[in-house]
Structure formats: C-alpha cells, structure tokens
Amino acid sequence: MNTATTEPEAKVVVKDLHKVFGNKPDVAMQMLRDGKHKDEILKQTGQVVGVLDASFQINKGEIFVIMGLSGSGKSTLIRLLNRLIEPTAGAIIVDGEDVATMSKEKLLNLRRKDMSMVFQSFALLPHRTVVENAAFGLEIAGIDLKERERRAMEVLEQVGLNTFAKHLPAQLSGGMQQRVGLARALTVNPSLMLMDEAFSALDPLRRTEMQDVLIKLQQEQKRTIVFVSHDLDEALRIGNRICIMEGGRVVQVGTSDDILQRPADEYVKAFFTGVDTNKYLTAKDVAQKEQVTIFDHPDEPAAGFSAALERMRMYDRVYAFVLDEQHKVLGIVSVESLMACMNDPNKKLRDALLPGKEAIPSSMPLNEVLRKVVEYPCPLPVVDEHGEYIGAITKTVLLRKLCKEKTA
Amino acid sequence: MSYKIPLGEWVAGGVKWLENNDHGAFNQIGSVIDNTTSAIEHGLIATPYWLFAAIFIGIAYWRRGWQFATFCAASLWLISNMGFVEQTLVTLALITSATLISLTLGIPLGIWAGRSDRAESVIRPTLDFMQTMPAFVYLIPAAMFFGLGRVPGVIATVIFAMPPVVRLTSLGIRQVNKEQVEAGIAFGCTPSQLLLKVQLPSAMAALFAGINQTIMMALSMVIIASMVGAGGLGNDVLSSISRLDIGLGFESGLGVVLLAIMLDRITESFGVKKAVR
Which terminus of chain A faces fewer neighbouring Cβ atoms within 10 Å, N or C? Predict the structure, then answer.
C-alpha cells in the first residue's frame, strides 16, 4: 500500500478465460462469440457456461479475494488457475507461463513446487497423522521422509500445532484441522496459494482467528494468495483487492474502498446491502463542509465576536468551529458561549471555546464516530493527520449516510 | 405358432464351440487352479491339527479378544469331535484359492470401475448377471470345460464370489471425498500416486467389507460345488440330502456354519481400524 506509486508486479494474468461444462463446448463458445446469453445457450444446447470471459490481474504479494454468491463461478474460477478444471478457452499466465497450455509434466511440477491449495472441507487425509498430512506435498514431490517431516514440523509450529503432530485429523476441532490444511499448503513453500472458501466452514470466532493467522503469516513472508469467499466481511477484512463475480462474469475488480464507494453496477451495490459498512467507512467518508468556521486572529485587537455571531445567524447554526491560520481546529464555540464572552473586552475568541470538545481523526471508523456523535449535542469537526480541518459530522449527516448504505 | 428365440441353443452352441476350439487354454487355466488349490490343501492337511488350531485361535485372540478366541477353540474342537477335520480343511483350501483368484481379478476390476464411468457402465451389468444367475447354472459349463473335480468348483465359486469385492472396491473409490481427490491433484499427484496415497487408503473399509463378503459367498458356493465333485464339507451335505440323513445333514451343516462365523468375524475385523480395544 505504501509503495502505491510503483506499478504493481503481476503474478497471475488471466485473459479471456472461459469454461463451458458439457460435451459440446465449441458450439457454446461459438454462440458466446455471436453474443448469445448463457441462459439461451443452456436452453438450446444444454451446455453450462461456468466462467465467461474473465480477465484480470493478480499482483505479487497481495491477497486477491474472489467473491460472489453460490453459482457465480468463483469456485470454478479458482480451480481453473491450477487446472483442477480444464479451461475451455483463454490464458492463465503465472509468472509469464501459460498454465492453460502447459505440458502435463510442467503442470505437475508447478503444482508440486509453487502452487498449493486449501479447501473448504479441509480435505485432509483421514488415515494420516497431522504431520503426515502436512508433509503430503513434499511426499508427492519425492522428498525423503526425514527432510519432509522436519519441514512439516517447522510449519506446524508456525500455525501452532506442533504438539498435535501425531494426532489424527478426526481428533482435532474444525479450526485446528484447517490449520493443518494451511500447514500442508505452506510446507511446499509456494509463491502462490489458492484458498477455496478456506474458512467458510468455521464458526465466526474461529474464522476471525484463522484470518489473523493468515495475515500474520503474510506479514512474515509475502505470498500471492487467491482467496475465494462468499463472506463480505471476510473479503473486506483480508483482501487487498476484491474481484466480484456474478453468473460466471467478473463484474468488478478493485480495492475494498473502490468497490464500496464506486460499485460498478446494481448487482455489486445489492451485494453490499446489509453489510456493516460502519466498519469499513471512516470519518473522512462522511464529513461534510457545511458548518460555519471562524478564523481566530489572536494578534488583532478585535476579538470578532459580532462577526462570528452574525455569520452563525446567517447560516442558522448554533455551533461554529474555530480554526487558526493554518486551518488547524482550535475548538467549538456556541452562540451562548460567544454571547457570554462578548461584553468582556479582555476576552478573545479562544476563551469562548466549549470545554472537552475534541476533533475526530479522519481515519476513525464510522462505528466509533457514531458513539461520539451520539455523546455530544454539537457537530464534530474532522481533522486530517496534520490536524487540519476537512469537514464536520452531524447527527443528520451521519444518519443520512447510514440510511443510504442500508438501502443502497 | 409363436416363434421361440433359440437363446439356450445359441449359448449351448457357443460353449460347445469354445470347448472344441480352445481346449489348450482351458487346460492351462485348469492346471494352474488345480495346482494352487491342492498346494493349499496339502499344506493345511500336512499341518498337525493342533498347530492349525493354535494358529487360528491366536489370530482370533489378536483380532477380537479372548471371548472370540474361546468360541473358536470350542468350534474347532467340535469339528474335530464330529470327525470333519479333513473335510473342513479341504473346504477351507477351496475357499482360500477361490478367494485369492477372486481378489486378484476383482480388486483391479473394482479400481478400474471406480475410476472410469465407461468401465463401470460395462462392469456393473455384468456383475448383476453373475450374481443373479442361479449358481448351479455355472456348474454345467464349468464341468464341461474342466471336467469334474475341484477345478470347476473353484471356477464356479470365483464367478459367484467375485462381484462383491468388485462392487465395494468401486464404491469405496467413488465415495472418497471429492475435495480429498482434488487436494491430491492440486499437490501434484500422478494418477498412480492419487490411487495409492489418496483413493485406496480412504476406500480401505469398503474394500475389506468387499473381501469379507467375497469370502462368505465363496463359502456358500463351495458347498454347492460339491455337486461337481469339489469335495470338502459339501460332500457330507450332499450325501445327507441323497440319503435323507438328518443327523449327518445337521452335523455337516453346523460345520459349515461354524467355519463361516469364524472366517466372517476375523476378516471383518480387518475392515475396522484398530478393532482391538
């Protein structure tokens, strides 16, 4: 994120990727080229279009979340990346090589060395112990027993399961089983990890815990992770970028902010209905500049009470913000506090500031903002990281914003 | 007059033709089966009965504990007391060789059917045919090809006893969790690695159930096969029927039942992991 100025390096480039399920994919592809809708193709030929003209790029070191409702083709899409499902048309370029047209040996090698997968149902082998499961990828690649168990134990320690190495998967809880699944994917030390609804089978608490494990691992060693999820909270929480799918099409690819604030179409917008956006929007996103601001000029003899009151009357405001010449917020004044100081010639504007009113940093999440706004009767100023005024949040503004999010 | 399709004549003609034109091959198959069976039989009979019993009871204790070992000891004593030792051992030899042949053919067939829909679509109806055709019917062509004796008995038994292990192996492989198979492929398994490391280990319970069923079917068929002179306990059953000898019928029948229970419980225990508590 902080190196946003440099162009991100591509790990995977997907180009015009299609998947048709059925025995006549050529017919279906021709119909797609003729602009026929997939429902029409299904009706006329019985061919199911699973993924339709997907093109996007996955950057090195990012967590790329593929989202969509069930049947949107997200699980098919992730399986096309390692060719668990054979693509019908298009290219999947991983590190410059097209997986779609790669020879069997090369594909086998790629799967063994550089690409691994984590599954929704964990897919551990029930007759193997935890350490044998974790070492599975290395075993397939022909690494000798000692070496593979040593490396498996290292990874098990990373995910906090080293004491359970000799247990069978059935003896572990769901969350622990998926840690084994994660360990199995990590032992081959891949640069690309595919995670298909990896945490969806876990309860919310374990899910968050596993997300944290993943993020921690990601901090230790940057891998490229493709993560399929139907859970928006999860996508927004861990995804660097999100790809939204609908009916086999990629509808939008972007950062969570992009997608939340500039949904590509009604589908994406509808997708976010009911999402607790308060967690993902910050004070900056709702602040509006419709409050009266008064500049404090401490060197001038006249305090400027009358001018301030006059402007507040004009805009029909009870409160106003006092800024210094660098636009830094000094505090809040009210009509009452100004009136109280007005007749005292020694008082300055600063003396009229209401006590205990602090500015809100622009990065504060909306749910915290909500608490503060409820607490105080007055609008609250929002400041950026340098303390400069960027707008204000009132109860009205906030409620309007929240209502819009809910009904969007 | 209605026309009757000469189905039976065709089959009879086909069998006749095979008999006349492929004699060498049948002889060879026959001698392989004969040698295997008689080797097992001689081995069993040459072993002192007390040693055989001790080994058997030992296995029973190892797999299922002392209650079952006691039951086996009592059963083996009763068999010897009724004077059926040699017949029982002959029957056991027939079962063993028929089962071995069934498994060497059946497990690969089951694996093939489990991994290929096309193979399954051919194998399944064939198995249905093999299992539902009355068992006696196999005895006729078997005896024609191989003469009387233990060879046609074993062949008929193989035909009758092989379906369960094929079916259950195929079922076991098909029932392996789809994501487990995907995991195998995703981590770079070759088809044979996938079979040996993912599919077969998961299909083991079903496979052992299949083996157990095959042994049970073999036992029941081996008795029937005494009609073509296969020998063993079946001979006593058969002669009790022809002489309407209720006493002999019960005793020889009981010998079969005891052998069946012992074989069933022991082979069954291999299907359940760590059956010993």
Answer: N
